[in-house]
Fold each of these.
Amino acid sequence: MRYFVSKQRKMFNRFSLFILIIVMGCANRGTPTGGEIDTEPPSVLKASPENFSTNFNSAEIEILFDEYIRLSKLQTELIISPPINPLPTIMPMGSADKVLNISGLDSLIENTTYSFQFGESIEDNNERNPLTNYRYVFSTGDYIDSLKIKGSVKDAFDREISENINVLLYEIDSLFNDSIVYKQKPKYVGKVIDSTATYSIQNIKQGKYLLIALEEENKDYTFQSSNDKIGFYENLINLPEDSIIDLSIFKEIPNFKLAKPRQKSNTSFAFGFTGELEPLEINIINLDSVNYTSRITREKKSDSLIYWLKTNQKLDSIVFNVYNEKISDTFKLNLKTKEKDSLVIKPEQSKTLKFNDNFLLNANLPFSELEKNKISIVNKDSLNIEFETKLDLIKNQYSIIFEKAEEEEFTIRLLPGAITDLFENENDTLLYKLKTRKFDDYGNLDLNLINAKFPIIVQLVLSSGEVKYEKYETKNSKVNFENIDPGKYYIKIIYDQNEDKKFSTGNYLKKIFPEKVIYYPDEIDVRAGWDLIQEFILK
């Protein structure tokens, strides 16, 4: 009998241990296996003080949810309008909780409606289902402001907009001026929803406002023209009359500024610059003009001018005088002895030459002279091909121009001394072999522009924004692109209002808008051997 009871107890103990292990396993945090996946976002059970409270005077806010939540991308998703300085503390951070706590609300303005717009920052803990566009609103006065403004935002130049665009409202009061966007935070803030490119600002009080859109790096709600993009409405808005307004953002070009030069080699000096390059003179003060020769070129991959100096005089230092109509400056540079450069000539194309392209030669030293009789071009039948040459001084690039036929082979030979650089270095024998493809390897695009206003710049661009083909038209609404590489392109139209043959951006303080840019809404597919006819109605 005792044996039977003892055995029962052992069996019971083992069973209890088994149940305990199961319970302990179930008690561990984690995502349970099996069952339906939770697709529902968390729900608000209660807020204290209640949402849309008036006469708010609490030091903190607590919002209770029906499940554990996490905060994700709070820095980019949360919009507090008007901005609160210093920023309140919002919990939980880095952990899960059923309560969202907002504290540090001791710098609120009297009689002001505040809005906390959480975007998609509130997620449930397990499946990361976001509670989309939850707003907590309160007023420190006895009523909630109820006016709103909405609209869309586009990029003046690029086809797509960034995810980091806010729309700002500045109240017009006795202290207002246009430069307020550089120094102070706005009265109200709204975030652009990148999927729709739309914005909405709610709970605004009646009054007059400056409306701008801002794409900024440091997210401090102030305009830094060197880094940020801005868009503005040309007039002050008057709420509630003005309630739907579209904006276009652009990057300003900063004023031209030249940096102190640096020595690149024994004969070259780099002047970095910001802004749009303007004509300027660079002279050397401590050298008589008869004792030196100089050239200025521009670096291909950076905003730098290269000053090339040829002189027989030995210098320990050099003093540059740089000037134009807007600037005048002097730079002194102590010189170091560096290894002498030898002439290196490199072709732009290596194997295939496209029908629309000229053969291009680049060099590390500035080109000076070219002897055409030391250059020959022959085809596969050993027939000489006539050609012309052209030198771009700023790019330091020679173009060799000749007619091309399909499936042709060319041998381009440069004998010694065909090219001489500024320092009297000459090339050795250079030999380049190139060929053309069949016309059917390329596609053609016939573009019919409806309602075009001239002059215009017509571009074919890749999804990255890179311009692959471009034409400038002053009167022709039928634009033909021949021998295009097969691929997918976007059609981009720039209205060249100032007729400088390039896109001109805007300026906020001068109230100048950028030139109008229009994209064909769909990507076009250019196929090899095909003639694509496309109609584009411009608005």
Amino acid sequence: MNPFLKTYRLALTPLSPIHIGCGEDFEPTNYVIDDGILYGFDPSRAVLSDLQKSKLMDAANRASLQAIQRFFKDNAQNFKAQADVLIPVSSGVAQAYEQRIGRAANIEASGNSVFNQLFIERTSYTGTARLPYMPGSSLKGAIRTAIVDDLNRGQPAQYDERDRRGAVKSDMVERRLLKGDFASSPLRLLKISDLMPANGHEPARRVLYGVNRKKRQVIKDGQELQPKGIAARKECILHGQYRAFVADAVLPQLQAHHTGKDTPAPELRPTDLRRIASQSNTYNQTRLQRELAVLDGRGLVNPAWKQSLEKLLAGDLGAQLRAGDAFLIRLGRYGGAESKTLSGEGVAQIKIMGARVDGKQQSTMEGTTKTVWLAAETESDQKHLLPFGWAVVEIDPQGDLPPLQAWCAAESKGRPDMAGLRQKFEAEKAAAATRRLEIQAETAAREAAKRAEQEATVQRAQALASMSPRGQLTETLRQKCEELDARITGGNFKKQTPDAGKAGLYQEATRLVKTALELNDWSASDKLTLVEMLESWLPKVVGPWDAKEQRKKLKFAALRGTL
């Protein structure tokens, strides 16, 4: 054991949906939704038939977003087989996909159609396994705010820490409280690894809506005003997953080192993660209670979730928090500006955007936000919403925590059986692989047949060119018979009737026989070649065929010179 390093094992349990973005989106050209499951794929890996390729190329050439979206939707089975990620989606997201994919959202005054983009923001994920994880920097950033808030103890910002409008310059406040910049910050001593899925298991996730709701009801003309924020689709790590993520935290022990300008001030150096846990709990428990009260007062929060969480925090988990063996934290997007600002009158400065006046966007600096972003199953849900980003982190957990375990089991009940879905998917993927091989074989066969036909055409042309003019007439008719025979064999054509009065191969044969017998430039050899060809090919393409009768009608004996 290194005496200068103190290492802790962290186990994180999400208490509400968490979204930590990675700057990537699912788009309708790299995902399809089928039976409530999003299948994410690389479209370049899909194997398409010639007809499908033609349709996609046509849509691309026309630059038709509508046609492109519809193509991926209509050919979902082809693309599903290439999926490297499967994610359940909310009922609202699935319904919106079915209703809006490939359809115009509205028509502009210019007449141009505006299409639904249907982007879905991805959460952070690992490389090849595509498993969600939480960057250690996100956890450390949330801890940092709590530590700075504890140091400030609600004191107002100093005069030189405000701009001309009176707004607080938070970076200057932090620099004063931490007694230095990044190089000398005590937070630099805390090292936290990325929070990875425990035991390599796939954490449960779901595509949910992020919806904006007003904290206080506003009525105008008898109608409740709704925020202007557009509902966003987010891939979220779901709550109710017992110790789903793990990480290591390391604290160097530098108490004896007091020199060096880049060394954090001795009195600020963190020496025990449990002290930091206490700071985080003081900061976050107050904010959680306040948020739940606001949401409950507006009737927005899911009441069953709220009651069960409050009961959990009041019991054994609360005792863990008070002892510093665990800490409450808020991570990711939509955690609210209040979870990233300092406490105290006039300290928290949140920019609130207002209306445009004379073409300029107006804004004010206030202590709290006017709206809150919440996780929802549908865009219109007003009563069963959850806040984003809450989690509990246990420090060096010893044994299980049954109340938390039971709470997770209850919250996760009814979720899709991803193991069963993956088993079914792998079977479909295997079938698709077989089909892909069949398509490749069919394509190869067609190409081989095409090459053979091209070669045969060349050979026929060469053979024809080497013949006498009479021989060319015989060969030309033979080739026509051969082509019709191929079509008859393929089931696309029937045999022609042996009627010299009807246009067709029989009539051509009759005329050619007459020419051969009447003209003196047909040699005995040319006539014999003609009659042997007719005896061989006409029965294949003309029917019914009476050999005795047709020999007489076509004067085969005369051609042979046996009369």
Amino acid sequence: MNPKNLKITLAAVAALAAVGGGAWWLGMSQGMAMMAAPEAVSAATADPSQWTIPQGEAATRRHIRDGLKAGDVDPATGLRIQNYHDPMVPGKNFDAPAKSPFMDMMLVPRYAGGGQGAADEGTVSVSPRVQQNLGLRTAEVVAGSLAMEVVAVGNVAWNERLQEVVSARAMGFVEKLHVRATFDRVAPGAPLLDLYVPDWVAAQEDYLAAARMTGPGTDTLRDAARARMRQVGMGEALIEQVAQQQRVQGRVTLTAPVGGVVTELMAREGATVMPGMPLLRLQGTATVWAEGQVPESQAAQLKPGAAVVATSPAAPGQRFTGRVQALLPEVDAATRTLKARLELANPSARLVPGMFVQLRFAEPPRAKSLLVPMDAVIHTGRRSVVLLAEPEGRFRPVEVKTGLEAQGQTEILAGLQPGQRVVLAGQFLIDSEATLRGVEARLNQAPGATAAAPLAPEPTVHRTPARIEAVDGDTVTLDHPPIPSMKWPQMVMDFRLPPAERRPRDLAPGEQVEIEFRMQDGDVPQITSVQRVAPGAGK
């Protein structure tokens, strides 16, 4: 070999060796830094609720080294260790640090107070970033008066208390009808019909004969004749007319006692009538009834005498005022409504039976109370709860006593103070966060009660691609990439397969799949959907 070429070759080999050694040293330095990073970061991060899984594992290893367990105070954080758990199986808690029995990883410590130091264990802390992701909204507790307004519908009916029946007081004959058909309108005192009563004519003639007599005892005869006219059914007005005019009133005109309409006509001209026989029926129209269908849940807000305003499509732009007359003891089993009888003023007789009316009941102004939006109150079945937003991102469930609900607001009788803020959206997500952290705050758990199942929505479904490592019955071992929704790094772990009819046949190691899964308390994650992915798909 040429000496010159040999020198060049040796120089190149030396250069490559130098570069390789530098690269090896740099890689080892970075690896050692990465191995030490979790513990360093964990010690530097004051709030354990913000730790990643590697940081939590590093803390567990430190606890094993220092002999710490549940109930001890971690000197690195100043917080009491509550328990240890596997982030992949959050429903299982352990009292001592150790390796997870479910996954190839260390357990992660859970601290009392959620990283808030001396904070009440009944609260759960949520970082601003998580609050933004959850879409949490709050509202202020304000003092105000809740105006209760009941709206109902009803139908118009005649006011039966204004109904009058005109009857015959003696046997006679109908000589003339002044009203010819039903629903004819009549004014008060208007003539209705003329009657000829023979018995009245005879009694009048006897009275006039006694009135013309003179001498002792004539006064007694006149009084007796006058009494006989009363006996045959003549009214005092007709008797006085006969006495003043001194002539027989052979025909009697019956007049309308009230103004209104003729609802029933039972007499015709020439007909013979008997004493007590109804001749026609009059209905007054000054007021009408409206039978409103009031929801059973709102009937308790109505009382007799309450004001009501009615409108009708038959009288656009016109309002009819009235009062609640009575709540009828009858409930419609199909619609769960209670009948309320209302008396409405009826000027110009615009309202007639059968008309449809819309009714608005106005309750007298109520005393001021605390009000919150209806969405803020959660009724668990055992109590009513709101999530109170406290400083530094803490949330606390508070039991409240509620009153009326109207206009999107709920009346709070006890449990809150003016100026406090309550959560409107995301309550169940906060409750789930409290469950994962082991905080004693529960929406469906009374203070001091044994921990109960939290009131939470359906479990969240997560999605990820994965490669099958092994299949053992209904369990599959998958190698999956990082899952941001769970804050999981890349790892190999077990999953529960869905029933055979809901999964592809003959799944084998090495296949690429796309899965959807949800977490289970005390068990490995449950796959809800699994599909094969063709090699190279998505690349």
